[in-house]
Design brief:
The protein is of the alpha+beta class and about 240 residues long. The chain has 7 helices and 12 strands.
Length: about 240
């Protein structure tokens, strides 16, 4: 189930009772994250263990054939069916879901003024109306941050000055293009006292992205910090 949320996050999130409701509910009145709370059956840990260490790959993309070929117990088979049902449900809506076993994400090691890897709080963006769909089946879950508890990193004076220096020009309009092209304007820093919230295991989320004409600000979120060897099973679309 979805754990209790801090007040600021509660104002930005809304629970629904079914996939149909999750699909049909519009983002409105400031709500930019919709959650269908679920407790899924099956042993997702067994599935994760049998997928191995990724053979040097940070992310293993899973398909039906690979999942069904695993030598699973009955509980592991139930977990596979749960994941494939979600995958098929989103595919039926002309979406492009991906099931991943994540062994570790690459880090932004360039040392620039704004870190742009998935461990940084960020918003997704799209040129047309779209949503991001997320479900964590095993491992640490994705994390959200209320818009009121975040500030764009490009609006932090010291960071903005460093970005101007990196840009090396003087034109404001071109500077904005520079920020956008490098995704610097999509990353956020939590304010003092911010209370991030976990998306939780098994819950299916639809979150708002930054797109033209969006009626709400985008949902700020990030991948959770993990320890070496700690894996995740994730659906994303």
């Amino acid at each position: 189930m979805l754990s209790s949320l801090p007040p600021s996050a509660s104002a930005r999130t809304q629970r629904v009772a079914s996939f149909a409701e999750l699909l049909a509910t519009p983002f409105a009145n400031g709500v930019n994250a919709l959650c269908w709370p679920r407790v899924l059956a099956g042993d997702f840990g067994e599935v994760t263990a049998l997928l191995g260490d990724g053979e040097g790959e940070a992310i293993t993309v899973l398909d039906e054939a690979r999942l069904r070929a695993l030598p699973l117990s009955a509980a592991g088979q139930v977990a596979v069916e749960e994941m494939l049902a979600d995958w098929a449900m989103l595919r039926a809506q002309a979406l492009d879901p991906v099931l991943n076993c994540i062994h570790g994400y690459p880090r932004d090691e360039e040392g620039g003024p704004v870190v742009t890897d998935v461990f940084s709080y960020h918003a997704d963006s799209a040129p047309v109306e779209a949503s991001t769909w997320l479900c964590t089946y095993f491992g640490p879950s994705s994390e959200g941050l209320a818009n009121e508890e975040a500030v764009r990193r490009v609006d932090v004076p010291d960071t903005r000055a460093a970005l101007w220096k990196l840009y090396g020009g003087a034109d404001e309009a071109e500077f904005q293009v520079f920020l956008n092209e490098n995704c610097y304007d999509l990353h956020y820093a939590p304010v003092s006292g911010a209370r991030p919230y976990a998306f939780g295991l098994g819950n299916l989320w639809r979150i708002a992205v930054d797109h033209p004409g969006s009626p709400v600000p985008p949902c700020i979120h990030r991948a959770p910090e993990t320890t070496p060897g700690q894996k995740r099973l994730l659906l994303i679309s």
